């Protein structure tokens, strides 16, 4: 592989498909075209690239850029952050990390059982911060003209920013009964969301559990979305559907979300290494490593 290549690991967080690319040595950037090439590849298909850069701010471990499959940049990615933590914990033996992202500082911790908690920060509810294109005083449920798509079953989403914009449609039926692949793209690009939005359908299954599915901005249907799980948990607690700690089940697995009294949202769940290689961040050309058969060999880099 050319000298201009960087180590990467193909990982997943609850089935959310992630490429963790370590650009600290190369000091380059993943080009949107290269991201789209990798996303289109059978082997390298991903939902997000988590690009690890040298820290921009003293006291942080890395600046992490989050790139969606369509090449756009996101402010937050819960499942991808757990993957970054696992990769860096394997490399350094450390358990606590501070990252900088477009959404601000993120603190994360790997536990002894291998699960990882990420402090996803404080939710934001004002229409300007989400952002919405027009004023809504109460974002717990907004009236949205969505035309004939599955209306009137789907209406009045709860909207919230977890650093990135989310709309949650609360339903009383099985979330699999809805054609999210059909209305997801329409709602993602609805004019009320000037920066597009992640679209989820969620059902309360008990005072401490939810099930949900998400159409991710810049990606499409995913098996899990960590920030959407946080958005749904916050929305559920805010509308008195549940308490402040819930188990959120998505097609790829279950996350625990706790909305602490200090307003921070803590997401806990797994991360899984699949395989690794080296890639050129300018072109998306890559080479897969030969099979690693020890934990040491799996360390990124
Ligand atoms: N999968 C992510 C969310 C990634 C970003 C999202 N698609 C956006 O554009 O906001 C997660 O686990 O949070």
TrEMBL record:
One of its GO terms (cellular component) is cytosol. It catalyses: (2S,6S)-2,6-diaminopimelate = meso-2,6-diaminopimelate. The active site is at residues 77, 225. InterPro entries: DAP_epimerase_AS (IPR018510), DAP_epimerase_DapF (IPR001653). SUPFAM superfamilies: Diaminopimelate epimerase-like. One of its GO terms (molecular function) is diaminopimelate epimerase activity. GO terms for biological process: lysine biosynthetic process via diaminopimelate. PROSITE patterns: DAP_EPIMERASE (PS01326). It comes from the Bacteria. The record marks 166, 216 as: Could be important to modulate the pK values of the two catalytic cysteine residues. Belongs to the diaminopimelate epimerase family. Catalyzes the stereoinversion of LL-2,6-diaminopimelate (L,L-DAP) to meso-diaminopimelate (meso-DAP), a precursor of L-lysine and an essential component of the bacterial peptidoglycan. This is Diaminopimelate epimerase. It comes from Jiella pacifica. The lineage of its organism: Bacteria, Pseudomonadati, Pseudomonadota, Alphaproteobacteria, Hyphomicrobiales.
